[in-house]
Design a protein that fits this description.
By secondary structure, this protein is α+β, with helices and mostly antiparallel strands. Among the domains are: 50 residues; 200 residues, DD-peptidase/beta-lactamase superfamily (Beta-lactamase); 71 residues, no CATH class. It is built from 26 helices and 26 strands. The strands form 8 sheets. Strands 2, 3, 4, 5, 10, 18 and 19 form a 7-stranded mixed sheet that branches. Strands 12-11-23-22-21 form a 5-stranded antiparallel sheet, with helices on both faces. The protein has a 3-stranded antiparallel sheet with strand order 1-8-9. It is elongated and about 145 Å long. The relative contact order is 0.10. About 2% of the residues have low confidence.
Length: 755
């Protein structure tokens, strides 16, 4: 028994050792799990139950020079759909399709276009998260808010919430400067390099044009974030408010534009375009060919401060409303805006349109002639010498007998160059040549530069380039074009590069003659031409035009100042400047001046321009375009010897500059220089005025008993006798009679503001 007890005790000791070992190993494992990796386990668990939801940041605002809001952000009521809640509803494909169709039908009933495919595309957009409320319709009515709110069970995941979208308070006013925003695309995601914290997701709004594009990094804010906890089924348990990060709004941009002057410029530009389209072109005397119609597809206006280089106004016609871009243009809208048949409303003619400058170029030819000592050499008279302009110029390179009979000269094709309209001028010197716009005077200069070896071959082009023509101005707007300054060298190079498009590589005397009057291959943009005249007006300092004055934070602190920037200095001899200035002033003040009628008749808003108090220096330009009507140009600055404003107007296929562009400039400069510019109406005010028109007509019919045809739209070209036309001040003309609708307009405006 003792032996057996010993065996039993031995076995018990072995079992005890094994048990202790097992419990020790288990304890060690538990210690490892609880102590060694507890922090990692907690972190892993937390990552499994938390989700981050971005909170969009509002974009910065855009103000005009006087601090008026041009672009801001407004509240909107939008319909959203949550993918997680939609999935949890466990609808089959047919049920899901029916539900989305019902949503689209209700939205369409409210007046907005929404397709089922649009909703499906939004749901499939990988930029949205599983927990995001995806917007599918903006600016919905309160009726839809009630409709979906009362039927939540029938539309799982669908809610109507408040959000913010971009708001362009003046509608289509200054839109080519302001630009527009739209959803960022794949190409932009790949190409953009945003600042830290400003990274993009596919659904984010991004500037597409104008200031919205050029100052995107300033205007774009930093997104905030919400952190929520969810359970294993994906249900939100709670929101971690301790982890909430508020979004940081974008910085504000203050422009140099004066929205009142901008409104005046755009209004008069549109008016001039519509009026020009009603004019029937006349045949040239002796011509058997029918002249091309004045199609006038568009035009541009630029107004600069010649001292600072600030852009006061920049207009391009036709235009478009950037408010329509909210949420992205539809395919139909995009096609319409980019259709040449609609005259390309998105094309900024002020900086992208390239036009032959015509006679506005003569100032720079005169500059070259004076500073290269062309005057008084060969056939070119002294600048102050009066000489006869016979109305034509015969190229010396054609034949020696330049004094042959005119009819014989005309037989030599390409040898005879005539004044516009076949005009002749008895006595012409440098000032007079600018006043009456003698082509022959500048033909003579052009060929003299070409044939005389003492003159620089490209003297005319070099002078124009120093004034900034044929090169980008540097204005901080996208898609600016450089224009073109032709020279013998680039003529040859273009021919070598593309002999089919450019079959001629040689440069002839006729090319120099054409260049001297701003024809041939010379191309400039309206902003370039305005800046060149500003350079002359301020005494020779070429500025880089700017449309932005400052970038400021939401606290009002200046982030950076853009300001004026001098690019170069043009050496302008004071004697030459005085002679040229005399000629330019004569354009508007001399009875022989090409723009005398525009400034000394009721063409200026029904009054005579106050030239005695505000003398205006100017130059007309008419540029020939093969197969089309002439381009109409006019450049001006005033007051002539202490200029505060430079203005250039260009109108495509509109005829003579003196007949079209000059009156336009006169109608704008008169209130600008005299300080009589009216306040620009916001889009809401313009809507109220247009809404007041039929009401005012109805009131007139009720009072007078007259039955008038209702005006469907406001036609600025309509004869006042033909029906009711609304003035900018709220006055309606009915058959020539003025009907005061001011109180009615004010009442409508107050109702729109909620007063």
């Amino acid at each position: 028994m003792n032996a057996m007890d010993e065996v039993a005790r031995y076995r018990m000791r072995v079992l005890a050792v094994v048990a202790i070992s097992l419990f020790g190993a288990l304890g060690a494992r538990l210690w490892y799990l609880q102590v060694m990796i507890s922090e990692q386990a907690v972190a892993a668990a937390a990552s499994n139950i938390t989700r981050v939801i971005d909170v969009p940041a509002p974009r910065g605002r855009i103000f005009d020079v006087k601090g008026r809001t041009l672009v801001g952000n407004r509240l909107t009521t939008m319909i959203t759909i949550n993918p997680r809640e939609l999935e949890e509803a466990d609808l089959d494909a047919v049920e899901r399709r029916k539900m989305l169709t019902r949503i689209a039908v209700e939205v369409n009933r409210s007046g907005q276009l929404l397709k089922v495919s649009d909703i499906e595309s939004s749901l499939a957009n990988r930029a949205f998260g599983y927990y995001d409320d995806i917007p599918i319709a903006l600016d919905v009515s309160e009726d839809l808010l009630v409709f979906f709110g009362e039927r939540g069970g029938l539309y799982p995941g669908v809610t109507v919430v408040d959000g913010t979208v971009r708001s362009y308070l003046y509608g289509d006013l200054a839109t080519h400067v302001l630009g527009w925003v739209g959803p960022v695309n794949d190409a932009e995601l790949a190409s953009r390099n945003p600042s830290p914290g400003k990274e993009y997701r596919l659904r984010d709004e991004v500037g597409k044009a104008g200031i919205e594009l050029m100052f995107e990094d300033d205007l774009r804010g930093i997104a905030g974030r919400r952190v929520v906890e969810v359970d294993r089924r994906g249900e939100i348990v709670r929101e971690r408010k301790d982890l909430f990060e508020a979004p940081v709004p974008g910085d504000d941009v203050i422009l140099t534009l004066d929205i009142d002057i901008q409104w005046l410029a755009e209004t008069e530009l549109e008016r001039s375009v519509l009026l020009a389209r009603t004019v029937t072109p006349e045949k040239e005397e002796g011509s058997t060919e029918e002249p091309p119609d004045f199609e006038v597809p568009g035009g541009a206006v630029v107004i600069l401060d010649p001292i600072s280089g600030s852009v006061v106004a920049m207009a391009s016609y036709p235009s478009y409303d950037p408010n329509e871009s909210i949420g992205g243009f539809s395919l139909e809208q995009w096609a319409e805006l980019n259709d040449t048949a609609n005259d390309l409303p998105m094309f900024n003619r002020a900086i992208q349109g390239e036009y032959a400058p015509g006679s506005t170029f003569k100032l720079f030819t005169a500059h070259a002639a004076w500073h290269e000592e062309v005057f008084g050499v060969g056939r070119v008279p002294e600048a102050d010498e009066l000489w006869d302009d016979p109305g034509f110029y015969f190229l010396q390179s054609c034949r020696a007998d330049a004094d042959a009979d005119v009819e014989d000269q005309e037989e030599a094709s390409g040898c005879v160059f005539k004044n516009a309209g076949n005009k002749t001028y008895e006595k012409v010197d440098l000032p007079k040549s600018l006043t009456v716009s003698s082509d022959v005077y500048y033909y003579t200069i052009g060929e003299s530069v070409y044939i005389n070896p003492m003159h620089t071959e490209t003297a005319i082009q070099d002078a124009a380039t120093r004034y900034g023509l044929g090169r980008k101005s540097g204005v901080p707007l996208p898609f600016e074009q450089a224009g073109f300054m032709p020279t013998p060298a680039n003529r040859e190079q273009r021919h070598e590069d593309n002999p089919v498009a450019f079959p001629y590589g040689e440069w002839y005397s006729g090319d120099n003659v054409n260049t001297a009057i701003g024809q041939g291959d010379v191309l400039v943009t309206p902003i370039q031409l305005a800046n060149a005249y500003a350079t002359f007006a301020n005494g020779g300092t070429r500025m880089a035009p700017t449309v932005v004055g400052q970038v400021v934070g939401r606290d009002g602190e200046t982030i950076r100042t853009i300001g004026a920037r001098a690019v170069s200095q043009v050496d302008i001899d004071p004697v030459f400047r005085e002679l040229a200035l005399e000629g330019l002033v004569g354009v508007t003040a001399d009875p022989e001046g090409t723009a005398y009628w525009s400034f000394n008749s009721e063409a200026t808003n029904g009054v005579y321009f106050p030239l005695e108090e505000f003398p205006v220096a100017a130059k007309t330009g008419t540029a020939e375009v093969r197969g089309k009507a002439d381009t109409s140009l006019f450049a001006a600055f005033g007051p002539a010897r202490a200029p505060t404003h430079v203005m250039v107007a260009v109108m495509e296929e509109a005829g003579f500059g003196s007949q079209v562009a000059a009156p336009l400039v006169a109608r704008v400069l008169e209130p600008v220089l005299t300080g009589a510019v009216v306040e620009a109406p916001t889009a809401a005010v313009r809507y109220a005025r247009s809404a007041a028109l039929p009401l005012c007509v109805s009131w007139h019919e009720w009072i007078t008993g007259d039955t008038l045809e209702r005006l469907k739209g406001i036609d600025p070209t309509a004869d006042p006798e033909s029906g009711p036309v609304l003035d900018a001040d709220g006055i309606v003309r009915v058959r020539g009679e003025r009907v005061d609708c001011g109180p009615l307009v004010e009442e409508l405006i107050s109702s729109l503001k909620g007063d």
